[in-house]
């Protein structure tokens, strides 16, 4: 019996790992024979696996209950059949499509910059895009759906809401990037955190910023990402006034504050998703490494 139990446990763990690997968009988005630069807009996975943050209610609490072979499956993946907590009584019909998503933790253990967790809380609840399902059978209060697209593995209790199309706005040419661009005069915010709560970013990273529909941000807008010299808000220690003096390596007679010097423009990104107080942004051009705490403005 012990051997059988051990075998079942190992099998379930391997199934979970396999499901995640097969459906992780990073492993299926990029063709090894076609350069990413040839793309004219974000691909399907970049758009529908972008994740989102919202201060609005995200859904009606309908959920994934379980799925076929639930005695041996701890997670569900592409082409699996899952059971939903809605049926014909709730208006579900064969062919209906749903987006599957999951709330995530709302704080980082070690803040990269001051106020990071406060800004995250003000933006709303973080949700992870899990995938999409299509209803194949309907009963009065439950239905069965096939997993048709997966960003990650599905699990019991994941939330669902009716599928809605997300636009894939066109890229602009990297040749149009201006590293000396003037201040746009439009809404300014911060890169608060990245997808999966990462803190450093480059090209094709997904980040979340604390400006959204309330600040006139729209899907397809380009945001310029920049940094002020002299900032000491990061968790990495810096000398005060390092922008104009560095002990043993020179200084100027006159003091210069952060707003006395030109800002450093790091790159830019395209807005994929907008909510009242936040936006999901795909970095399309990165001149140098970016970090949580850098600033953004609408171009």
In short:
This protein is 12% helix and 30% strand. With 299 residues, it is mainly β.
Question: Describe it for me?
Answer:
There is one protein chain. With 299 residues, the chain is mainly beta. The protein has two domains: 43-162, no CATH class; 174-228 and 263-298, Beta Barrel (Elongation Factor Tu (Ef-tu), domain 3), CATH 2.40.30. The chain has three helices and 15 strands. The strands form three sheets. Strands 1, 2, 3, 4, 5, 6 and 7 form a seven-stranded antiparallel beta sheet that branches. It has a six-stranded antiparallel beta barrel with strand order 8-10-13-12-11-15. A hairpin with a 4-residue loop joins strand 5 (125-138) and strand 6.
**Structural class by sheet pairing and helices:** mainly beta
Globally, the shape reads: elongated
Ends distance: 65 Å
What sequence of helices (H) and strands (E) makes up the elements? HHEEEEHEEEEEEEEEEE
Q: How many discrete domains?
A: 2
By DSSP, the count of extended strands is 15
- Could you list the spans in which at least 5 consecutive residues all have pLDDT below 50? 1-36
Number of helices: 3
Report helical residue fraction.
10-25%
Radius of gyration: 23 Å
The major sheet is characterized as: 7 strands, antiparallel
Portion in strands: 25-35%
Mean pLDDT: 86
